[in-house]
Every structure is written in C-alpha cells, then in structure tokens.
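Reopening: structure tokens for the flavin-adenine dinucleotide complex, inputs below.
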Amino acid sequence: MISFDNTEIAFKSKSSRDLKRSYLLFKTLAHNSLVKVGGALTQSALRVHIPVNWIVKPTIYKQFVGGESIEECAPVVEQLSNFNAKAILDYSVEGKESPEDIQAALSETLRSIKNASSNKNIPYAVFKPTAFTTAKVLEKVSAALPLTDAEEKEANNFKQRIETLCKSAFDQDVPILIDAEDSWFQKFIDEVVNAMMAKYNKKKAIVFNTFQMYRHDRLEFLKESHDMAQEGDYFLGAKFVRGAYMEKERERAEKLGYPSPIQPDKESTDRDYNAALKYCVEHINRISVFNGTHNEFSSRYLTELMEDQGLKNDDTRIWFSQLYGMSDHISFNLAHAGYNVAKYLPYGPVKHVIPYLVRRAEENTSVKGQTGRELSLITKEMNRRNGK
Ligand SMILES: Cc1cc2nc3c(=O)[nH]c(=O)nc-3n(C[C@H](O)[C@H](O)[C@H](O)COP(=O)(O)OP(=O)(O)OC[C@H]3O[C@@H](n4cnc5c(N)ncnc54)[C@H](O)[C@@H]3O)c2cc1C
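Re-run output (same inputs, fresh job):
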C-alpha cells in the first residue's frame, strides 16, 4: 500500500530555505482572520492601484504560482521533472470578459497547448471555459432563457472558441482539461464539452470534462456521460475534483430560493467522489481518469482500485494531480512509486492571479484543515534534516 508519510521524498525538491519560507507562509495562513483581512486588503489595494507585488510575489505567489508567463515557469517544470512529476500550466487570469480579454485568453491558451506539445514534462493543457465568453451568456443558455440576437451570436462564438482550442489540442496530440466552476454556467459548458469529446476522442481521450463531486447530481451525470460515450463510440475524459465554490453555491441557492446543488455533508461528497473513481476504473476501457485531489484516502484508493484491476502504476489512462505548493507528500510519494503525477501550475501576472491566491489562502486556513497537515509535514522534514 502506498504511504504518504515519507517527508524526505515529499520535500526532496525543496531546499531548507524553501521549506522555511513555506513554513512561515502556512503558519500565517493558519490565522483565519488574517487571511480574511489580507485577502480583502489586497483586493482593495489593487482596485485603487496600490502596488502589491512586493509583498505578494515573494510570499504566497512564490508558494502557489509558477511565474508570470510560460517562459518564467520553465525552471519550475524542469525542477518537478527531476523528481518524476510533470506540470500542467494553468493560465489563471479570472473574471475578465471584454472582447480583448477573451482574445488574449484564447491566444495565451493556444500558446500553452503548443508549448505542451513540445515538452514531454507537460502532459496536459488546461483552461477555464468562463474565460471565453460572458457570464451572462453562460448563465442564460444554461438556464434555457430566451437570448437576444447578440447573445445568440456570442453563444455561437463561445462554441467556436472552445472548438478552436480542442482542435488545436487534438492536432498537436495534447490532452486538454476543461475546468468546472459555478454550477449555473455548467449545463451549457457540459453540452459543448460533450460535443467536443464526441468529435475529438474517437481514438483516445483528448478532451476532458470536469466533474465536481460536491454536487449531488454528478455521479449520475458521470454515468450518463459514459452512456453517451458508449453510444457515440468515443472515449470519456473525466477529471475529478470535489469542488472549490461550495459556500458561494449554497449562498446563491438560498438567496434565490432553489434547492442547493451541493451535497448535504462532506461524507456524501467523499462517498460520491470515491464511487466515481471506482466506476471509472471498472470501465477503464472507455474512460480516462484525472484524479485532482489533496485527499489522501482518494489518492490511495485509486492506487488500490488500479491494483485490483491489474493495471500498471503508470497506466497512461490514469493521472494523479495536486496543485503546485500543496500536498507534495502525496505528489512526490506517488511519483516515486511510478504513478503518473502532474502538478497544476498556475501562471499569470500578479494582479490577475489574486482571486486564485485568495482561494488557496482560504483553503489553507485552520478552519478548512489543510494547513495543520502541511505544517506538521514541513516541521517533520525540518527536524529530520536537523538530525532531531
Ligand atoms: C489538480 C486540481 C484541479 C482542480 N480543478 C478544479 C476545477 O476545475 N474546479 C473546481 O471547482 N475545483 C478545482 N480544484 C480545486 C478542488 O475542488 C479543491 O482543491 C478541492 O475541493 C479540495 O478537496 P480535496 O479533494 O483536496 O479533499 P478534501 O480536503 O478532503 O475535501 C474538501 C472539499 O470537500 C467538499 N466539502 C467540504 N465540506 C463539505 C460539506 N460540508 N458538504 C459537502 N461537501 C463538502 C468541498 O468541495 C471541499 O473543498 C482542483 C484541484 C486540483 C488538485
């Protein structure tokens, strides 16, 4: 059985100085009130154009982000590959929807696909579909509301942009992950992604949809997606995450008076997450799995399912992934044991990746629980290095 306890393997890629920096950062993040105030202050500073780079870049940015551009990420990609882990470059500019911003996101994502095609240490490309049209259009189409002519045109433009990206990924043989965000955008996104899979996944999974298992309807949707793939004779690319927007989802549902799409409790999310992994491994001839989690049980469970099915550790249809800067004990112990591992490596200008950093900070407060684990692992490794 795989163990995630070996901190020597987990932190081999980190100098003692890096470890100390991570320790101080996680120690700071442990204070919930500091994270709340810090996040709000940073966003306000940005709004009134007060520079925040000097404080953000050497601290939280350095922990969780690869660099401002694809080129700046190259040393990090190289460093990860020295320890058998790959990287997925994620252009993390969020919440922009002017035509110029959409065009810029399209060009940048095409560049990232091309970059992945020429670097064996970058096994996937990725994008957020919300970068390619307006929130209004995604929401209205998903809710089947009547569209104006201009919105109709914009919905078609969105489909075309996604097609451009998927075709480019297919032509260059780079599997591409399509992230999931708010549930009220997802119906339209699912339709478009399913159409892309039907077109480009005939020989293997190139296009991957994301299943957020904190939604109570996603296990059923996984089975439906699998049925569609069987009927259409194509491969299903399935990326799994628990989901990052739980509070926002619940608040909106309550405010607008509809049933929350989120599971009633954490146990239900965990149950469906693990059931989804099991379902996929049992149908591995049709489904490729991307396991995006920091949960030790779900990571270990997938290795056990693979063993039960007699699959090799490096079966190309199964990947494990954690975010850069988090859960290295899972990533590097899996990579050391020969499993396919890729770190999600966000990149982008400091001021544009702030929403991503705020989410990471919130996920790492003591309330959410990750920080205690990171801190105790780092402390264990610092003690080991100091011969304690
Ligand atoms: C490689 C990778 C890619 C990612 N891509 C996406 C993406 O495309 N879209 C996205 O939304 N997120 C994405 N994420 C973020 C991801 O959703 C969070 O990191 C994840 O939810 C944290 O959960 P965990 O699986 O690590 O496990 P854990 O820490 O065990 O679980 C925490 C999660 O469980 C769920 N949960 C917690 N409490 C409850 C409760 N009371 N009721 C119901 N559910 C609960 C929430 O989803 C919470 O985030 C990605 C993460 C990784 C590692």
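Residues 179-180, 210, 212, 214, 241-246, 262-263, 265-266, 269, 292-295, 321-323, 344 surround flavin-adenine dinucleotide (CB under 6 Å). The mean pLDDT is 93. Marking as resolved unless the reporter disagrees.
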